[in-house]
Amino acid sequence: MEESVSKKAIVVLSGGMDSGTLLYHVLSKGYEVKAFSVNYGQRHEKELEYAKKMCVKLNVPHTVFSLPLSEIARGSSLTSDIPVPHGHYEEESMKQTIVPNRNMVLIALAASYAISEKAEKVFYGAHAGDHAIYPDCRPEFAQKLGEALKICDWFSVTLEAPFINLTKGEIARMGKELGADYSLMWTCYEGKETPCGKCGSCVERAEAFSFAGMEDPLLQM
Amino acid sequence: MEESVSKKAIVVLSGGMDSGTLLYHVLSKGYEVKAFSVNYGQRHEKELEYAKKMCVKLNVPHTVFSLPLSEIARGSSLTSDIPVPHGHYEEESMKQTIVPNRNMVLIALAASYAISEKAEKVFYGAHAGDHAIYPDCRPEFAQKLGEALKICDWFSVTLEAPFINLTKGEIARMGKELGADYSLMWTCYEGKETPCGKCGSCVERAEAFSFAGMEDPLLQM
């Protein structure tokens, strides 16, 4: 028997390659998708332009919500003048890029939107490479927050994090199979004209493309 | 032995009498308190003016964060032109006043602020009278969300909801003992010049003052 529930989903879309591949993945599962991005004052606001372009290409309705998060969540190099650390993504210094409780804020907002849209699911793109540095990308965090979301309203929302145990390389390989367009996904934390190649995010992206046997289209331009 | 931890706390302050009394309560416990309010487009934005006045009186630092929540969380009579229902606070019609997932959004933002301030605790003023209508004021919701907050960052945040099993009458009685100034706490959902006396919020406030054997100073003016 077919499930009788409608399959509506909200995808939290940063504009990077994890959530970008997630968008392809969720669409491939047959969901009616709406994408949800947040401009929280990130240094690499450029990722939002990429998110917009990808949603236009995939014909997915897209909301960009403005949130002055840096007014209250201070001290991150992603939302201030503190320099972005260079090096590997899992190095201790990368903790400087944590925006306090960012993912709970983004997911909570996405769930508000999901309830209004009667969408049963909220997807977010946390992956295994995030676990070392970002507590709010770990399976136990997703599980606990998911339990709260189930009972936050008369309409129950399910949090899905299908990439949470995949490496970025495995995500890239999945994207390759899905025909994902990586020229429309921005990763670099610096957010300048071209990727810096030195921040943890760039380093991890390069490793992922290498693992998947792909060339990075953003480096070909 | 004295606890060696610092006692910093963030109080989510709406400007109403539950969170207002909560502010007195947390101060009485010796915490170093900062109050956190959110302008989410509520019809009764007036409550924020009351929150400000109270923080000035109590000499508590106060942040009012602006959040255009009604752009995504639609359909509530608190954030739209849909009329506020009249009647008792626990009537089915009061569900019209739910703002989808509002409390998780407010608490998540308060926790971002708490982490930045190195405040171990976030207090919110849910009470037993809320349970019938607002799922995000129930003990099981507070418990689940609290478990996620514990692990959202390297700095652990504890969610406290000390009024969650008290009636509004019991809160008023506690406020009376604490010398709380109820002329600085706004309750009415309509947010007009004077309290309407007919919305669920006004009806519940009147019952609470009656229970506590107090006159409502907002009705004496």
What do these coordinates show?
- The structure is a homodimer of 221-residue chains.
- By secondary structure, chain A is of the alpha/beta class.
- Chain A has a single domain (8-219), classed as 3-Layer(aba) Sandwich (Rossmann fold), CATH 3.40.50.
- Chain A contains six helices and five strands.
- Chain A has helices spanning 17-28, 46-58, 102-117, 139-150, 168-178, 200-212; strands at 8-12, 32-39, 62-66, 121-123, 158-160.
- In chain A, strands 3-2-1-4-5 form a five-stranded parallel sheet, sandwiched between helices.
- Chain A is globular.
- The relative contact order of chain A is 0.18.
- The A-B interface holds A 36, 63, 65-69, 71-75, 95, 98-105, 108-109, 111-113, 115-116, 135-136, 138, 140-141, 144-145, 147-155, 157 and B 36, 63, 65-69, 71-75, 95, 98-105, 108-109, 111-113, 115-116, 135-136, 138, 140-141, 144-145, 147-155, 157.
> Approximately what portion of the residues of chain A adopt beta-strand conformation?
5-15%
Radius of gyration of chain A: 17 Å
Q: Which protein chains are joined by the largest interface, and how many residues does each one contribute?
A: A-B, 45 and 45 residues
CATH A-level architecture of chain A: 3-Layer(aba) Sandwich
CATH class of chain A: Alpha Beta
Helical content band of chain A? 25-40%
- Please indicate the count of domains of chain A: 1
Q: Strand order of the main beta sheet of chain A, please?
A: 3-2-1-4-5
**Backbone shape of chain A:** globular
